[in-house]
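Field: sequence (string)
Field: structure_tokens (string)

Example rows 1 and 2, in order.
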Amino acid sequence: VPDPAHPMLEVQGLSKHYPIESGFLRRRVGAIRAVDGVSFTVDKGTTLGLVGESGCGKTTLLRILAGFEAPTIGEIIIDGQPMSAVPPHQRPVNMVFQNYALYPHLNVADNIAFGLRIRKESKDHIAASVDEVGGILGLTPYLERRPADLSGRQRQRVAMGRAIVRRPKVFLFDEPLSNLDAKLRVEMRTEIKSLHQNLGASMVYVTHDQIEAMTLATKIVVMKAGVIQQIGSPSEIYNRPANLFVADFMGSPAMNLIPAKARTNGGGTTIEIARREGEPIVLNDPRAKDLPADVIVGLRPEDIAEPGFRHGETVQQADCRVDIVEPAGADTYVMTHLGGKPVTARMHSETEAAAGNVHTFAFDLAKVSYFEPETGHRLN
């Protein structure tokens, strides 16, 4: 019986360094730090999203959790048990790969049952397990088909079925939806979320798609060059990014990051932002902030909107020349230039903003983020 006092998965100080060798004698001259000092926990029944740019160490970390690679240093604990001496096939984890990794010569039922046969489970247990998993994933009509006769969506379900059938304590997903088209990705996200709720399983979900992470994860780990940049809930990561990298990476469109001048004006803070034409715009944050003179102002596109849609003392208006208008169904994205940077506002579909014209933008400073330009660290 799992002990509720500890997380299902604990990663403690995990690093993976690959040696760099040079010369005829292949002398070691350094190391590539693919994963560097990573620590986090995954509670029972929750999903942790691992996100970051390609090459940041996400998949390497997942392979270490699965036991396919050994860490240079650090510890992995699953349900209170250290995993350093446990081989991959004995770890209570199962991995769903990006390319499905199905056996083309086996039918769906045999692909799902493969791990159970390796573990020498009884025929009755295997048959019952395959029937159960087939029912959960809607694969019952396809159990006799081979992977080549299935759609991408069905192959993805078979890959998940092979993971589910072993009833692991932790599921590991390595960008499982990257081979699907946009519509199927949305549908499969819903299926994975439903599956997670039905199984009550703990999951680690690797993706470069921050929308997937925000949709599926209970907690998100943002990585860059093998190092964790921030750990938090989707809301924390989105609304209070720890640094410029997280602010720019999470969100689509990305957060606007605008160079500005700041000064305290008694009870609040004055933010001065250069315009391409005319005098700088001046915004007044009613909250007094202890900010340096030079700052980066972070505002999400939805926090720069049409006048009249946001109210309160944190909403400030300014006229800006429109560069580009992009209709997007219910919303229209309106681009201007501020602080020498392109800035995107999210306005309603019937906006009168037009390229080349001056339009009034409403800046809601209630959710503004301030960053230090040199270090990129969050200031508020």
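Row 2 begins here:
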Amino acid sequence: MLLPTGGLVMLEATKIQSFKSALRGALIGRDDAEYDNARKVYNGMIDRKPLLIAKCTDAADVIASVNFGRENNLLVSIRGGGHNAGGLGICDDGLVIDLSGIRYTHVDPKNNTVRVGGGCTWADVDHATHAFGLAVPTGVISTTGVGGLTLGGGLGHLTRKYGLTIDNLLGADMVLADGRFITVNEWQHEDLFWAIRGGGGNFGVVTSFLFQGQPVHTNYAGPMLWHVEDAPKLMRWYRDFIKAADDDLTGFFAFMVVPPGPPFPEHLHMKNMCGIVWCYTGGLDKADAVFKPIREQFPPALDLCGPIPHPMLQGMFDPIYPPGLQWYWKADFINEIPDAAIDVHMKHGSALPTMFSTMHLYPINGAGSKPSNSDTAWSYREATWAAVIVGVDPDPANRETVTKWARDYWEDLHPYSAGGAYVNFMMDGEGEDRVKATYRGNYARLAAIKAKYDPENFFRVNQNIRPSEAAAQAG
């Protein structure tokens, strides 16, 4: 019996059965009842149909899956939390290596380190670390997978205080394209450890991460919202303020539509507004003094900023953005926000097409800017913000509407950008030139490391770094 895989590969049923027997986790095919649910990812715009989904429970399952994919010439994608903007955790007519069963978090309170399984979400990590008064710097949605966010860099509420997620990565266990299991850190496979800190999923499957935990428990944090017509003066203030602010304070600027429910007051429901989502990690006894001049200069229409446990802050926006919405992303790094760029923001940010669509400016400065561009694969340490424009709606009928809005916004704003973009905010198929613009002077080094560890580009369902031909030949 032969099973077709989109006309590209023919697999004998005996091979699939042998593979299934080698796994501790489940192997899901197109005829299985759970197939449609297993192939869903966070972005409802993505509708890909793999041949097989291997639900791995440990590193041995991952090794078996990598070997099976390589030996049968299958296209392979790696799924952690499934949050990737372009749905790069899933592929058509190939093998999905699903890490969601590798889900554990172990905190070492003596060394303040955190060992995290490759299938964890940040909610898992926040829950485990909070009991010890620790946190790992990460994003702003707790259902995001640890793996994808980390390998792309990791921006969030703690970036200005403790750096990117990759700046807190101490090591990782990986399965390479040839099936080898290795540990990477500052003294083992140092070149690969450098590459995975920002280079995405190009180099192997990470089955566990080791992070440095940072002292965080209760922040003074939350959103302040203003009427959208206040945005120009607020942005002109914010663009200078955040550059000079103490590293204990961060805040990302946003355009948004107020959701129609608590904790938002009814008179603001469905209003297009602007806001800053703050996070202050200094002493709670100092917070009122820090925010008093902001509140006096720009009295907010809504002020939800106050003491909040860190896991609650991380999960604050989870209910607004459940899995399955239609998402279209566009992004850029930003150094400066001139008045002309503020005009562009007002044009598009005050005309959000749906309640879920938004624009965020995430600060990268402070501790995030302290490493050099060559210290890790991330190459925009001098950028002040990572901007992301997302057209979002639950209704597939609005797909073109939200996509056009995001593209138009980005095209008008891009001339004021630094060039590249945060890889975790990029859609699939943006092209090799876009990837090169993101890694700039680090691209050649990344391509050489790719050639060393994955010369056949086995791991290519990603923002792909192609192996250097010269390095591959030399190897």
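free_text_note (row 2): The radius of gyration is 22 Å.
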